[in-house]
Write a structure and sequence with these properties.
heterodimer; A: about 450 residues; Lyase, Ornithine Decarboxylase, Chain A, domain 1; TIM Barrel; about 25% helix; B: about 80 residues; alpha+beta; Arc Repressor Mutant, subunit A; three-stranded antiparallel beta sheet; two-stranded antiparallel sheet; 3 helices; about 50% helix; about 20% strand
């Protein structure tokens, strides 16, 4: 007689009380395949943990975003936010779909050039641009978004007497009715600083003011804030036209569109409350179309959306290291990935699914990572099946910021793979090894022997 | 260590403790363990019977039983004789 399949013994107290009108959310439905490839096969081939990126989903997202804006406004340009995920292969998917590059450091700038982006299609943002960086950007005819007066004067000094011109915009910060107000970047609209910066730029012939830029926040759940931002940029742009007779070529509304992840503390699931790309497109394009631009002088709208275009295009697959019981009887499950790889676990309640079949029994548990640090907690409370050592799981929507903000802390970083449009997997980044780490270290002679 | 003799169990995994009024849900393996405990089987006998019935091994059972007994204790389904 064949034996019955074994499941860890489990007993749960049944509590009576008022029903939750949203029901009890459980995540026992297994996710066994990612873009057609078995999770177990990916782990066998690439190890555990491992980031898996879907080329198909990236293209779908960027095409959908283009559709949402281009059907509402004639001149739209997306620029891929490198800091969100600057793996070259990921960037090139966006560039193949027509996105320019939006960079915030010389490292990202040079990466964009290496990826083959033409200099005049690179937007150089950020507060830290050295004179050397600015010189390179001027040489390549890139769009330089000036962040502060020190940068403005550096640029003027750099160009003085050279006969060269720089294409510039200023970053404008403003009150859009949301909290916290981001005012650390750029020049303030309300106190007149932004207009002062514009006047100074207009007074220097070596600077060509081609655009205005704002980036009002991140994970913006309110679309109306973008309407306010657009109106204020339009006000500045129409005043520039009045003063100089020349129209502003573009308004860059930045990024900050939310992905469908669930923020910590949110009562409802992210997918139920975040605005769609169409919602953002509607308010931004309406605000600009309703401003006082002549029909033939409508500025191009540039968008630097990152998170909303990449978050749901990547997963982290991993394995259970151990399960244990905490002092208050709660189940704790230790995974082979932690906050070292999922930096955004500090803000998100990531959805985690098992990668194999289980029975319908589930239990509340805490999900910890492998770091010997108390902060290494991925989910403080989640309802999952009766996981055992070696079981595999899938963490959803991890594409934004994790692969750039990840830490080489205690553990080394794993492989990143991409599944292409034909369902084939490719390594985009090798896993780190002891050699990778030691390559950068130097040992003084007197410390070589112990 | 002994099971509370008043505990009522159903075939579907519903467990009721009449002395506290608490009810519980358990899975197939948990149900089998409670049944065997009601038959006064020792831990060693339990492991032997479970290995024969389910596709698992002794070391896995040893680990899982430790955790399960802890929960049974916590829920006052197991009582200490001493």
């Amino acid at each position: 007689m064949s034996k019955l399949s074994y499941e860890r013994p489990f007993i749960q107290k049944l509590n009576t009380g008022s029903m939750n009108k949203f029901g009890t959310k459980t995540e026992f439905a297994p996710v066994t395949h990612l873009d057609g490839i078995r999770v177990s096969k990916l782990i066998e081939d690439y190890g555990s943990p491992c980031f898996v990126i879907s080329e198909r989903q990236i293209r779908k997202n960027v095409q959908n975003a283009n559709r949402a804006f281009k059907t509402r406004y004639p001149k739209i340009q997306f620029a891929w936010s490198y800091k969100t995920n600057y793996l070259s292969a990921v960037c090139n998917v966006f560039h193949q779909e027509g996105s320019w590059a939006e960079v915030v450091s010389i490292y990202e700038y040079k990466k964009a050039l290496l990826n083959g982006v033409e200099g005049n299609k690179i937007i150089f943002n950020g507060p830290d641009k050295t004179e050397e960086d600015l010189a390179l950007a001027v040489e390549n005819n890139s769009l330089i978004h000036i962040d502060h007066f020190d940068e403005l004067y550096s640029l003027v000094g750099l160009l003085d007497g050279t006969g060269k011109k720089a294409r510039v915009a200023i970053r404008v910060n403003m009150d859009t009715g949301i909290y916290p107000m981001w005012d650390r970047f750029g020049f303030n609209y309300e106190n007149g600083q932004a207009w002062n910066a514009i006047i100074k730029i207009l007074s220097h012939k070596e600077l060509e003011l081609v655009g205005l830029h704002s980036h009002i926040g991140t994970f913006m759940l309110s679309t109306s804030a973008y309407a306010t931002a657009a109106y204020k940029l339009c006000d500045l742009a129409t005043n520039v036209k009045l003063k100089t007779g020349k129209p502003i070529q573009y308004l860059d509304l930045g990024g900050g569109f939310a992905s469908t992840n669930t923020l910590k503390g949110s009562y409802l699931q992210g997918a139920d409350i975040v605005p769609t790309i169409d919602d953002y497109a509607e308010v931004i394009t309406s605000a600009i179309l309703n401003s006082n631009f002549a029909q033939d002088e409508l500025p191009t709208i540039i968008l630097e959306s990152g998170r909303a275009l990449i978050d749901d295009a990547a997963w982290l697959i991993g394995s259970v290291v151990a399960t244990k019981r905490l002092s208050d009887d709660r189940r704790a499950t230790i995974m082979d990935f932690g906050v070292n790889l999922l930096f955004n676990a500090f803000w998100y309640d990531y959805k985690i699914s098992p990668a194999q079949e289980f029975t319908h029994h589930t239990e509340d548990m805490v999900i910890y990572g492998p770091l010997c640090m108390n902060i290494d907690c991925i989910r403080e409370s989640i309802n999952l099946p009766l996981l055992n050592k070696g079981d595999q799981v899938v963490v959803h929507k991890v594409g934004a910021y994790n692969m750039t903000q990840w830490m080489q802390f205690i553990q080394m970083r794993p492989k990143i793979v991409m599944i292409d449009m034909e369902g084939k997997s490719h390594i985009l980044r090798e896993n780190e090894s002891l050699d990778t780490m030691m390559e950068l270290e130097r040992m003084p002679e007197h410390l070589k022997n112990i | 260590m002994q099971i509370n003799k008043n505990i009522a169990i159903s075939d579907s995994g519903f467990v009721f403790n009449p002395s506290t009024g608490d009810s519980f849900s358990t899975n197939q393996v948990g149900l089998e363990i409670i049944r065997l405990l009601k038959e006064n089987k020792s831990k060693e006998e339990l492991i032997k019977e479970l290995v024969l019935k389910f596709s698992t091994d002794e070391s896995t059972l040893e680990k899982d039983l430790g955790d399960f007994f802890m929960m049974l204790n916590s829920y006052q389904i197991l009582v200490n004789n001493d």
